[in-house]
Amino acid sequence: MSTVAQSSCSPSDDLLTDRLTSLPLDRFECSPGTEESAAGILAGDPGELFRHLLRDQESETSVLVALRVVMAFLRSVPEPADGSAPMTVEDVAGAVVDVTREARADLVAAVARTGGGDAGVRGAVLRRRAPVAMLAGCWLDIVSQPLTQPSVIVNQLFQHHFRYKGEGNEQRAVEHLRRRALEDEGVRLPGILAEDFNARAVVHPLTALHGAFFVALSRLPGRFLPETVGVHYAFHALGLDDLLFATEPVLDEAAVRAPLDAYLALTEQSPDGAAERRRLLGAVRLVVAMEKEQSALLAEVADEEAALSLEAKAARILRRHAPFAGSQHRRVKLGDRLLADVLGDPGLDFDAFMAEFRSSYHLRELRSGGSRFTRALKFGGPMFGIFDAGESAVLDAWVREVQEGVPTPAPAPGTPGADARAAARRADLTGTAAGDGVVFAEPRETYDDRTLFHRLVHAESFPSIRRAAAARAEQGLLDGELLLEHGAGGRYTDASSFTYTPQALLDRVDRVYWEKLVEPYRPLTEIPGRDEVIFHQMTFALANLIDGTWACRIGNLGRFDRRSDALLFGIYADEMGRGELAKNHVVLFKKVLDSMELRLPHIRDEAFLDQGEIPDSLYGFSIHQICLSLFPDSYYNELLGYNLAIEMFGLGEVRLHEMEKLRRHGFDTAYEKTHLSIDNFSAGHARQSAEIIISYLDDVRRTVGEEAVQTEWRRVWRGYASFAYFVEHHLVKEIQASPASGPDASADADLMI
User: Fold this and answer.
1) Do you find a cis peptide bond into 743, omega within 30 degrees of 0?
2) Which residue among 137, 557, 620, 689 has the highest number of C-beta atoms inside a 10 angstrom radius?
């Protein structure tokens, strides 16, 4: 069970206040095949490890890799001499502030030594820091999820996450602000997921490993909640990026001190408080060590850049362009080999190439000045436009230096300190193959719905559940396709297929709103009894306790470029009250349960497996939603359609009738009222959900073409239909009973209501 601080609050207050401080670390279950594949990734190139974690947020292997990376880094922090002594809240708070304040003073001095007024040196330093600068705050990407909501500390952290994501504006997200700041300094980089990002950013192995830690933590924030709080505070209290960029912080020390203090106060009432505080302090010390390693690396980069000779700068330019040389050099030779063959050799010794090129006829001075090589760079020459103005200027100067007989200079100092530290960190990674509470067990073929739901909520600890989750998500989508043909008869939805145009979509949702949700409404003439009203509320309960889950992984690092990403993230943020507990929809529903005197354990707790209020037959809808949410890349289109369906469903008759019934028996109506308001069809979530789809498909049209729009659209509408399948159970039964449906359509739909 989760560790929750005890207090003297009233039962009602306890119900509404989730004092989560940590979760058990004693089990991590993976399929047997993942151990070998994860070990291969961990033993490989650090840059590829970083790329793997950035790109793969869905696979079981990636979660295991993330665990190994996080554990390796955490174990690298030496225990203080008095590590076994009790650690009070005051002790830890003082130690955290002292260690970060002292380290920040060191960083200020270190930054002053990197770059000065030399634009080339400064650009090199910022380029090498860019991978970490652009991923700042990623550890909060999924800190808000069914496992952790509506925790006090998680909601404080989510407020910061919302700010980091530009408050729902993708252009104001920190990742994009940092990229524009780099451009202002003359450093142009693609998005962090781009194929050539590592090469363009000249990612050092140490930076790649640091980046891998932060991304790995972002995959497991529930499992490592004390560490997430510590990392969040230390990274911002140190503020290395703001020192380097000379920018005002998005979150300053005072801002990140609030959740730190709140968390430490919660641990004071937790039975595992001392261990949690020790874990938090260890994470702070780790970030301090990492940022000191970064500043030392950047100092070495600055020294190397300042000492870089024209020869070395020319070599760097030529090395960068060599892979694209291709066969266009035709009969041009270097020595007795075709230049195209030399540059195309995968085993090319570039130092030897530079020595041979330096002494070749290509660089000899012509009577009219210049050389064959530099003339080829001019307008009309065969290499015009390959090198930019700055690169051409360096190559011109280098050729003149060669012609003047300047001796080959000594190599630049390099980054020996950072190289050694990267080697040590790589060695740490290979030492995490055992332990961690990891169990390798073949997943079951089937799970009962209660067990499946529990493991989906705890997906961080049960990566192997992804196989069952993927199958269940796909089955839910296939079931929904039944309504693509017959959905027009739905009571609350119309999932029947149609050819997409923006206007056709708006017309469809307009008709559903008026004809199925609003116009049928008539005030109830008879209110059901108290017990019946409670029972009906419980048919919605599981879905309400995971409100917003379908979108909880939208907008993760590197996936926040499209307007549709930002709009959907904005909807999720609203569902979570933008971090304000009083507005959090899960809290609002808990108030409804409280008014009915119902006491349900948190869905993450083992005790929820045995709760008796929600029948087994109602788990399917929530399971489908969580399964879709685990695959935000694979099922992005379907999530957009699902989002439209769920945001429209709460409008009109359904909620108005619920409010009448709740009000009659004196039950809390805030949850129903909030949804009726925030989901409004004029400008609320329902209207926004249609606009999200239009925005996404407009991007598809402009980048891929009209034919692709219809292909992508079919997937979007498939997501809408998968929601409709759960709420239109009368229609589904009718269709399944029809002889035309065939023998395979006999199973009842798993109901939501």
Assistant:
1) no
2) 689
Query: What average pLDDT does the chain have?
Result: 90
Residues 6+ apart with CB under 8 A from 470: 627, 630, 631, 634
Dig out the tokens for 25 from the structure: 């670390």
**DSSP-assigned letters across all residues of 26-69:** S-EEE-TTHHHHHHHHHHS-HHHHHHHHHH-SS-HHHHHHHHHH
Mean per-residue pLDDT for 86-95? 90
Q: Is the pLDDT of residue 747 over 80?
A: no
Instruction: Give CA–CA dist 277/264, Å, rounded.
Output: 7
Of the candidates 156, 165, 190, the one whose C-alpha atom is nearest the C-alpha of residue 557 is 165
- As a whole number of angstroms, the distance between CA 362 and CA 365 comes to 9
Q: Where are the alpha helices (DSSP H) in 308-349?
A: 310-321, 339-344
Whole-structure pTM value: 0.92
3-state secondary structure of 568: helix
Compute the chain's Rg from CA coordinates.
29
Task: Specify the amino acid at residue 473.
Answer: A
Residue linked to tokens 């892979």: 323
Both tokens of 469, joined, read 């989750």
**Cβ pair 600, 541 in contact under 8 A:** yes
Angle between helical axes of 46-55 and 34-43 (0-180°, round to 10): 130
DSSP letter, residue 3? E
The identity of residue 344, as a single letter, is G
Model confidence at 545, in pLDDT bands (50, 70, 90)?
A: very high
Choose among 654, 641, 407: nearest CA to 524: 654
Q: Which residue, among 598, 601, 463, 585, has the nearest Cα to 534 in the 3D structure?
A: 598
pLDDT at residue 562 greater than cutoff 50: yes
Return the structure tokens found at 253.
């020390």
Of the listed ranges 158-167, 398-407, 456-465, 506-515, the one predicted with least confidence: 398-407
Token look-up 């050389």 returns 371
Q: Tell me if residue 354 falls in helix, strand or coil.
A: helix
Distance CA 457, CA 688 (A): 28
- Tokens linked to 399: 């050729």
Beta bridge mates, 440: 30
What percent of the residues of the chain are helix, what percent strand, and what percent coil, each to the nearest 5?
65, 0, 35
| Structure tokens, 365 | 């001075």
Q: Which two three-digit tokens encode residue 393? A: 């200027």
pLDDT at 82: 60
- Degrees to nearest 5, angle at CA 473 with 470 and 476: 150
The pLDDT of residue 391 is 87
CB 613 within 8 A of CB 598: yes
Residue 28: beta bridge partners?
A: 438
Tell me how far apart the alpha carbons of residues 600 and 540 are, in angstroms, rounded to a whole number.
14
Can you tell me the mean pLDDT for 663-681?
Answer: 91
Task: Name which of 483, 476, 481, 477 is nearest 732 in CA terms.
Answer: 483
What residues contact residue 180 under an 8 Å CB cut-off, 6+ apart?
Answer: none
Residues 212 and 728: their CA atoms lie apart, in Å, by 45
Is residue 223 within 8 Å of residue 246, measured between CB atoms? no
Q: Are 173 and 287 in contact, with CB atoms under 8 Å apart?
A: no
Instruction: With beta carbons less than 8 A apart as the criterion, state whether 535 and 727 touch.
Output: no
CA 721 to CA 500: how far, in whole Å? 15
Residue environment code for 289-299, b if the CB has 16+ CB neighbours within 10 A, otherwise e: bbbbbbbbbbb
Of 172, 238, 215, 197, nearest to 67 by C-alpha is 215
Question: Dihedrals φ, ψ of 337, to 5°?
Answer: -120, 150
Q: Are 63 and 70 in contact (CB under 8 A)?
A: no
- Residues 590 and 154: their CA atoms lie apart, in Å, by 17
Contact 209, 425 (CB under 8 A): yes
Rounded Cα distance, 603 and 454, in Å: 7
Whole-angstrom distance, CA of residue 170 vs CA of residue 181: 15
| C-alpha triplet 326, 327, 333: angle, nearest 5° | 110
**Does the structure show a pLDDT above 90 at 457?**
yes
